[in-house]
Amino acid sequence: MAKQIQAMDEAIDNLEGVNYEERSFTFKKEETNQVIKVYFETLHYREEGYGTILVYCDITKEYEVDQMKSEFVSTVCHELRTPLASVLGFTELMLNKPLKPERQT
Questions:
Q1: Predicted model pTM
Q2: What angle do CA 53, 14, 33 make, to 5 degrees?
Q3: What does the alpha-carbon distance between residue 2 and residue 5 come to, in Å, rounded to a whole number?
Q4: Which of 23, 98, 103, 104 is 20 to 30 Å from the Cα of 69, by its Cα?
């Protein structure tokens, strides 16, 4: 937890001049396996920094869905690559090896 607090303090200290996308960070709570995204913004009062507002969002489900999608795509790619390699090798053999036309057919 100390790492997250330190990261949050550093991010808030460097908030000025940072674009909107960089005004957030994500961390994983090891004890609960939750994935938390924190958004933060400085509150201003008469051109002076007044405070910082933090919004915590539990994105555990979105993270898990993204992991499942990545695993699915990886599995599909692997399963398609194996038969396609055989077809490609056989096609190259037929194109490059001199065979009688009726044998090629």
A1: 0.54
A2: 60
A3: 5
A4: 23
Is residue 42 within 8 Å of 52, Cβ to Cβ?
Answer: yes
Query: For residue 81, how many C-alpha atoms fall within 13 Å in the half-sphere facing its CB?
Result: 6
Backbone angles phi, psi at 41, to 5 degrees: -150, 140
Rounded to whole angstroms, the maximal C-alpha distance in the chain is 88
Query: Tokens in use for 84?
Result: 């396609």
d(CA 98, CA 105): 13
Q: What CA–CA distance (Å, rounded) separates 26 from 4? A: 9
- The length of the chain in residues reads 105
40 and 24 in contact (C-beta within 8 Å)?
Answer: yes
d(CA 41, CA 50): 11
Q: What single letter denotes the amino acid at residue 21?
A: E
Strands 24-29 and 48-58, sheet pairing: unpaired
* pLDDT tens sequence across 49-71: 678 888 989 999 999 999 999 99
